[in-house]
Amino acid sequence: MARFTPLEWPVLRQFRTGDATGRGPSVTSERTRTMRPRTEDADRVAQSVCPYCAVGCGQLVYAKDDKVIQIEGDPDSPVSRGRLCPKGAASEQLVNSTGRQTTVLYRAPKAKDWQSLDLDTAMDMIADRFLEARRNHWEDVDEAGRPLNRTMGIASLGGATLDNEENYLIKKLFTAAGSVQIENQARI
Amino acid sequence: MGNADCIVIQGSNMAECHPVGFQWVAEAKARGARVIHVDPRFTRTTAVADRHVPIRAGSDIVLLGALINHVLSNGLWFDEYVKAFTNAATVINDAYGDPEDLEGLFSGFDAETGAYDPASWAYAKADGSGEPAEPGEESQQDPTLQHPNCVFQILRRHYARYTPEMVTEACGISAEDFAFLADTVTENSGRERTTCFAYAVGWTQHSQGAQYIRTASILQLLLGNMGRPGGGIMALRGHATIQGSTDIPTLFNLLPGYLPMPKAGVHDTLEDYLDSVGTKDQKGFWANADAYTVSLLKAWWGDAATEDNDFAYDNLPRLTGPHGTYQTVMRMLDDEVDGFFILGQNPAVGSANGRMQRRGMSHLKWLVVRDFSLIESATWWKDGPEIESGEMRTEDIDTEVFFMPAANHTEKAGSFTQTQRMVQWRHQAVHPPDDATSELQFFHDLGLRIRERLADSGDPRDRPLLDLTWDYPVDEDGEPDPESVLAEINGRHLTGEAAGEPLSAFTQMRADGSTSGGCWIYSGIYADGVNHAARRKPGREQDEVASEWAWAWPANRRILYNRASADAEGQPWSERKKYMWWDAEAGKWSGKDVSDFPADRAPDAVPDRSLGGPEALTGTDAFIMQPDGKAWLFAPTGMIDGPLPTHYEAQESPVENPLYPQQQSPSRITFARDDNLSAPSAGHAGAGVYPYVFTTYRLTEHHTAGGMSRWLPYLSELQPEMFCEVSPQLAAERGLEPYGWATLVSPRAVIEARVLITRRMMPLTVAGNTVHQIGLPYHWAVGREAVITGDSANDLIGISLDPNVQIQDSKTGSCDIIPGRRPRGAEAQRLVDEYIERSGASVEAEARRISAPGVREGTETPLDEAHPQEGDPAEAGESHALRAEQDAGDHRKRTPREDQR
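^ Those are the sequences you sent over. The predicted structure of the assembly is below.
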């Protein structure tokens, strides 16, 4: 609590601030007066887009020290005009959720639990398995001798929450590898 | 939508699922627009609508068909629009047979394969012979719309039986509700006013979902509501870039820009492929498919794609049928797939028939899951429902699982395409933590490692990988520059003075190898080397079109086919609905948007038809992608299950098809397996065992299978528990207690849910019987990692698919509901099996697709071939359902209620 002064007497305060209805600055508490938006501490604001539904609401992502501290609606967006729904408004938790798994995990055949794995090792293991599966299920031609040039040993599902650029690379790489079973939420 | 005078929301709960987009509906309503919600449930959308029209799930084509009939019978169509812009006047060849005459089937059905040959749906030759015209050829026209075989007259006959009485009988909609809907829609269409339809997966997730949307398209064309402000049909898509992921697809059947993946036997050479995608003599922009295809091949294989090797066309793998996600699951179960990548998706929860999904994954050699949290698709081997029940044991499962943490939307830059085709760039705010990477980095890195391993290979099958252009600049963290990928998607000039410069439009693409471009419809997004998706001129500083906020494909057009916003002479239909118009003085189209038409093509232009392509479009060929320049009321090609939408009942239905003897869509795709059985349809013994209709849906506070919501404390607290919505009448019928437990059983699974008894669910009277519908949100799953868990509604759903798009029929299913919690352990499957046995559901019954008893005429094959003959092994099971179906004549009058105990 701030030290009491006569000037803070409510009636005087109301006169002093010209707050005729008594519902403005004359009745704000110390706590309200010193309240600051948490966005004020941000050292960076990125214009972004909500990752949930396809309305495409604009988001402002506030970050400090390479950590997201708040996500708000972007009032500039002609689509959303600053609004976010409960999911969009909760998306700071999507970033900072304690339930987030940020390191690689590996489950061996028949194993009862996960083990940790170094990212580089995991990438090598996946690349080896990719090529083996590709080889094991390769088809040069169909029964009529027509070209197929494909593998049926690898499949993929996902993409509706990924970026266009990411889907582009996925389709490009899988197609060049001869894999055709590439699918997406759009089918579901 | 903000400009609409009437908005019909059908197959969507927009206020719940797209709440921020719904502000535009609210705004239209505040201006005086009528809002009508057609839905099985009273929802948050209904609460603010002018009228709720409750409908039986799966009967939308009857309602929309009846609106078409209402328009045609009462002279309410927008005559000038229909004559100028649609194929109403086109005559169909003499061989065409309509379901009116063929017991509910179209001509060309092959009962053996279950597929149609669309040859008999073709336009008629211009010479009046009645013979079918070749694709792209000039066809016979009757501008008076009187020729008995013109599209307009065929429409009239086809929809004649879709009457208001039929709507009441099939949909459970009262005559008064239908009249209100019909009057409101037609009064708010025409020169001065426009009506907009909005749908979501309530229309797509059916065995004829594509036809639901076609029905609305026909209605909107007859009313002149396409290509105009406040009109159209709004597809409310459910994921941030589900639009983008079909434009630049991770889908088996497509290449970027809706170019098809080549099929063996159809597209064996580049020439075959191009002829089938778009011939040079057809009208419109698909005639330039060669330029789009060659530019794509140049983007992918660079200098290795030359004129001499057909631009490396043979590097593309070939399809031999549908290779969709459900077909892939079947192959997994047969041990034919070794490895599976799951990228921001949770099929163990989000796909139909969850048990098949999880069991399919247990047959893999390896699985890579990329996500933020340990979703159920990553942990089914230790805590899934089949582990809980003892059906699978962790120590028996050989699948290797890699969990690869993913960067989220704030930790990487890139673009999403929202539901109106607008591509918006996101800037990176922070770096991803620990091992988390973007998909861009993961796949770029995987590609580098694969190529490194193959570097010395002399095997020709490795050439496509080794010749692939894969030289994206990376930053210090190994993240490829996403703008460099966007630039490749946009395309470049490869030769001449402009070599290396970005294309500014897809019209610059060439088929001679002098341009590249990864997705032709996105060409122009990086024009002048500027990332147009990142444009951010505030909405309040622009007009309502806001064309300087981000970029919409194609060519930054905000309303497609906007040539139709002006009349045949190029003048706005009305001052009120003014959008684009012909500026005769300037000799070009002008208006609020980028013209979706050749900019200098005068309304009265009639170029030489033999020019082909965009050059051949007349001044009124507003539908510039169609080979005849017209919007198709009748689709002579492109639809697998018929040229006109026709009502069939869902795979599982308590109602006999009141329109035709054919019960279900004859060309639907089914998987007759004992782990994917269907409840017997109405009229069959055992139909009463699963007497209730269930339909699934989303809640505002959750996102699909929960991977992005059930791990968030706020959202979990807002909607903590799986529940089912039932009417007070159904609760009384089954003894369900408010907030108590209920057990739901389908032929696939048994699940439990808390009971929410609410008048928002209304029993409907359909064909004289009461139909109860149960609502089920589908966000929960069995597991141990999420903040909240529960049973998954998708476990109840069986897999049968729309043949056009291979999307599952998941908006209508049959189930039973009983009070109390479900059995645990092996008892659960025993309960499912007991129901199956009682219902007589069987693989044999599942395999039958034709129920129209006398379908012979016009079919390719005598119908008998589709019926198992006496002694046929398929009949050996002697199922009740099969015998009942053979006696269809006797059973047709039976009602589902009579079948109940």
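Chain A has three domains: 1-35, 38-96, 137-187. The mean pLDDT of chain A is 94.

Shout if you want it in another format.
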